[in-house]
Design goal:
The protein is of the alpha/beta class. About 35% of the residues lie in helices and about 25% in strands. The protein has a 6-stranded mixed beta sheet, with helices on both faces. The radius of gyration is 17 Å and the shape is globular. The N and C termini lie far apart (about 40 Å).
């Protein structure tokens, strides 16, 4: 089991230059929980993940990981605490093959998955292990991006749109990987437009609109609030 990390965000404001993007965001995620941040495009979901990871320089408020405030910490310090970020653009190294991509990130501890375990979880990657990043399909790149952080031993995962544009069979495999993370006690923050996918995995759903959290919906209330959720997402 992982030494799961809690995440507590209070009154988070974030800026791109003079543009004020997040307006007092607060989230409280106990260790081992999986939550989604949902909302329309431009709501501030990706900026929230980037702020947690320390990739947004101009921030105010508080971001506590396992009780330690990292609002002023650089990304490398956040990563060493056991936080892993899988961005929407995936960040696959084009000139490296699958195995080299897997081995590249530095481990934060020895509790990560082995290469053999990763290949058992993602058989497609094993078949393509000598293929360069540029030769992988979008689904294979997404599998590789997730597999890469599973190997590091991280305990808090920030996943940005992991199923976007992927075939249903690949989405199923991504779901299996996230379920495995949950079963191992990891904490997961998931930005996901595919709400049907998110409802199968997440314990709670935070709704974001114009840089603010406007609602929190527990899994048990999703069915009763289906119409309201559709309005939030513009479906």
């Amino acid at each position: 089991m992982a030494d799961a990390l809690s995440l507590a965000i209070a009154d988070l404001h974030a800026f791109y230059g003079d543009s004020h993007v997040l307006h007092g965001v607060s989230l409280d995620i106990p260790a081992g929980e999986c939550v989604t941040i949902i909302g329309r495009n431009g709501a501030g979901k990706t900026t929230t993940l980037r702020s947690i990871m320390g990739l947004i320089q101009k921030r105010t408020g508080s971001i506590k990981i396992a009780g330690q405030d990292v609002i002023a910490a650089p990304p490398e310090k956040v990563a060493r605490l056991g936080v892993a970020y899988v961005p929407e653009e995936r960040g696959i190294y084009a000139t490296l093959d699958v195995t080299e991509n897997l081995l590249l990130p530095r481990k934060v501890n020895d509790r990560g998955m082995s290469i053999d375990d990763i290949y058992a979880l993602f058989p497609n990657l094993k078949e393509r292990r000598r293929s360069q990043g540029t030769r992988l399909s979008g689904g294979e790149q997404q599998m590789l991006a997730i597999a890469r952080v599973l190997r590091t031993g991280a305990s808090l995962f920030l996943l940005d749109e992991p199923t976007e544009g992927l075939a249903p069979v690949i989405v199923q495999q991504i779901g299996k990987a996230i379920e495995l993370m949950k079963s191992q006690g990891h904490t997961i923050v998931l930005v996901e437009q595919n709400f049907r996918f998110a409802t199968k995995i997440a314990d709670r759903h935070y709704v974001m609109e114009r840089g603010r959290i406007i609602d929190m919906i527990p899994r048990a209330e999703v069915a009763a609030k289906a119409t309201q959720i559709q309005q939030y997402l513009g479906i």
